[in-house]
Specification:
The complex is a heterodimer of chains A (397) and B (305). Chain A is α/β, with parallel strands linked by helices and 397 residues long. Chain A is built from 16 helices and 15 strands. In chain A, helix 7 runs parallel beside helix 8 and helix 10 runs parallel beside helix 12. Chain B has 305 residues and is mostly helical. The longest helix of chain B is centred in the first third of the chain and has 27 residues. The chains are: A alpha/beta (397), B mainly alpha (305).
Chain lengths: 397, 305
């Protein structure tokens, strides 16, 4: 069983001397976090929890927000949208949360966002990829601090325009994020004057990818775009290595994360793709974050840990500006929120609540002395090139 | 009858004093109660044990979800239409399943349930596949009233559906039709030899059971604002069968209590441990071993003393 129960966390928050010293008598700011701690997306959800807990601890040690301590109420959704709706309803109605983090899968977020208005709650997303959340399914109480699926796909396509690969196949997880990202990719490939030869989707939790690998080989593509994450990603990469797929096809993935690299080891070498966050980003803010993180967890922060930390900072900036957590006051403050993030300047956009930020292309390389292969930044693209027009999922140029 | 009215009055007064969270729980409990009661029609009165009753629930939920998403039909009518639709589909299902009896019948219901589950995974335009149907609205009406869309209003709608269905089901089981069903339960061959076409009776009761089960699913869709393939999964079929058995089969009231009991235990235990199902499994085993006639049996024995 992964994860602390709600009660443990409540007790921990109450017993923490830090909370008592800095914010005696102040009512805590409660943030509900229904997140997938078990199931195929459990690894991602666990990263999100780490990111939020790290931020809460750090912020509470510095006196909280508006002098109020932060209290996280974490619930396991198992990655099922129906359970996610129920857990979100629980933290809102039972625990009185008006601020939400979490909802690991886009399908979970899409199920929850229609309810935000009724609950009068603000949801700050740190990992939801589906473009519809800031497009056709937009609701005023939803904010996305992270890079979306269409954005990471755009980063890849901008990079591919400079390269010599010409024929592409795509493999994605069979749910909202996979379909959305591959749709955008297909569109981008055609615009670049290259060929898209086909796509295939694997159900969430797939363990045997042999039939998919055969399809990729038979397609005759020289590049394969992957929209996989968590356990599925690790399973695919190690099997692709067994089939020597990498010798024939350049694998390009929408998220390069440490977890998959650690799971498959050298099988990840040569993998290229976009990433939402990587610990080697070169700026003082990030260096300080990575150092503090290593001190606490004795590991480098992974993609969703960095992204969650950024989302937390974005919410914090909004609350400090609004001096309130009331949705009607917080919403306008968040709409103009700008932070100096671990990824550099990140600004929330009022028209669709998408945070404008740059994107990274990394390549996994073997480094002397390091136990695992490491992702190295190949190139970066600025926010104005990778963020789609307001409430759009595709790009015009 | 006096008991029914007393309970109805009590339930009707509850929204006045309960916080929103308890209202949400209670509404869900009533929906589950309706679902469990619908299965009791088959299991308790005709001994038709279904391992695929989630099919009725899911059918109702997806039908109602699509009606609400794509039309302006008032909420109560959409719910009723989805229930009826589920019942109509059941005629075909029952026609096939009743070709077999006993365990084979149960296996066929399970197969049909899993078939629907597989279809729902692939039929993206209607079911949204693994993403499900999100943002199912509570439409206005009838006569433009938004009352049934509110928390309290929706609770009353659910309550009305449960009591309406209960009175309907009770009338059915007390009628001569119900007597034939009991005849099938006790000795189908004898009932057949008395001149009753038992298969037609069985098809009819399955259709009624699916209709009420579909009604429950139809309520769930706008309750959660969401429907996905979990609602068609065999796990739910198993859970509802447990509710019926723990509550007491062939009593209608028992499964209602069983469902409320199940949800309360789940709600309380899941705050402490993620392995709540383990505890409930133990409770279920104890019931089967020591109280095979369920909560209702316990209550009856107490009264007899």
């Amino acid at each position: 069983m992964a994860g602390l129960s709600r009660r443990t966390i409540l007790t921990a928050a109450a017993a923490s001397p830090v909370v008592l010293r800095h914010a005696r008598g102040e009512t805590p700011i409660k943030i509900g976090m229904p997140v997938a701690l078990t199931g195929p997306a459990g690894e991602i959800g666990t990263q999100m929890r780490h990111g939020a807990e790290f931020w809460a601890k750090e912020t509470n040690a510095a006196g909280g927000i508006l002098g109020r301590p932060i209290e996280l109420i974490i619930q396991d959704t198992t990655g099922d949208p129906a359970t996610c709706v129920r857990k979100a309803q629980d933290v809102v109605e039972r625990d009185g949360c008006r601020l939400l983090f979490g909802m690991t899968l886009s399908s979970e977020a899409l199920a929850v966002v229609p309810k935000l208005g009724e609950w009068n709650a603000i949801f700050m997303s740190s990992d939801n990829g589906d473009g519809r959340l800031t497009g056709s399914s937009f609701v005023p109480n939803f904010f996305r601090a992270n890079i979306s699926g269409p954005m990471e796909t755009r980063v890849i396509s901008l990079w591919l325009r400079q390269g010599k690969l010409g024929k592409f196949f795509a493999l994605g997880m069979d749910y909202a994020w996979g379909h959305n990202s591959i749709g955008v990719f297909q569109d981008e490939v055609k615009r670049a004057g290259k060929t898209f030869v086909g796509d295939v989707y694997s159900p969430i939790g797939t363990k045997d990818f042999s039939t998919y690998i055969t399809k990729i080989r038979q397609s005759g593509a020289d590049g394969c775009f992957l929209v996989l994450q968590g356990d599925d990603n690790a399973a695919f990469l190690s099997q692709a290595r067994d089939y020597r797929l990498q010798d024939k096809v350049q694998l390009i993935t929408s998220i390069v994360d440490l977890n998959s690299i650690h799971a498959v080891g050298d099988a990840a070498i040569g993998l290229a793709g976009s990433t939402r966050y990587v610990a080697t980003i070169d700026n003082p803010k990030n260096q300080a974050f990575v150092a503090a993180w290593q001190k606490q967890y004795n590991a480098l922060p992974d993609v969703f840990e960095g992204e969650q930390y950024q989302a937390c900072k974005m919410l914090q900036a909004g609350i400090e500006e609004a001096k309130s957590i009331d949705a009607d006051k917080l919403r306008p403050a968040l709409e103009s929120a700008k932070i100096d993030s671990i990824k550099g300047p990140v600004a929330m956009r009022a028209c669709d609540h998408q945070a404008v930020q740059g994107g990274y292309i990394v390549k996994v390389v073997k480094k002397d002395g390091a136990k695992f292969p490491v992702p190295e930044i190949v190139t970066t693209f600025p926010g104005d090139q990778v963020t789609p027009a307001c409430r759009q999922m595709t790009f015009d140029s | 009858m006096r008991m029914t009215i007393a309970v109805a009055v009590l339930l009707a007064l509850l929204p006045l004093g309960l916080p929103p969270y308890a209202m949400t729980l209670l509404t869900e409990a009533l929906i589950m109660a309706l679902f469990a009661m619908s299965l009791d029609l088959m299991v308790g009165y005709a001994r038709l044990i279904s391992f695929g009753h989630a099919a009725a629930y899911g059918l109702g939920a997806y039908t109602c979800g699509n009606i609400l998403l794509h039309t302006d039909i008032p909420l109560p009518f959409a719910v009723l239409m989805a229930g009826v639709f589920s019942g109509v589909v059941a005629i075909g299902v029952a026609w096939v399943c009743t070709l077999a009896t006993g365990v084979s019948f149960s296996m066929l219901t399970l197969a049909f349930g899993q078939l629907l589950y597989a279809v729902a995974f692939k039929w993206t335009s209607v079911t949204g596949a693994s993403d499900g149907l999100a943002g199912i609205p509570r439409t206005k009406g009838p006569f433009g009233t938004a009352f049934f869309g509110t928390k309290t209003g929706f609770y009353y709608l659910t309550m009305a559906c449960l009591f309406g269905s209960f009175l309907f089901a009770r009338a059915v089981v007390r009628s001569p039709f119900g007597a034939v069903l009991r005849g099938i339960r006790e000795n189908e061959a004898k009932t057949l030899s008395l001149g009753y076409n038992t298969r037609l009776y069985k098809i009819a009761v399955v259709a009624m059971s699916y209709m009420l089960g579909g009604l429950a699913g139809a309520l769930y869709a706008p309750f959660a604002g969401f429907a996905n393939t979990e609602l068609l999964f065999w796990l739910l079929s198993g859970q509802v069968l447990i509710m019926v058995i723990v509550g007491g089969t062939g009593t209608l009231v028992g499964p209602i209590l069983g469902a409320v009991f199940f949800l309360l235990v789940q709600q309380q235990l899941s705050t402490y441990t993620d392995s709540w199902a383990l505890v409930f499994g133990a409770i279920f085993i104890l019931f089967v071993l020591f109280v095979p006639d369920g909560i209702m049996g316990l209550a009856r024995r107490r009264r007899a003393h």
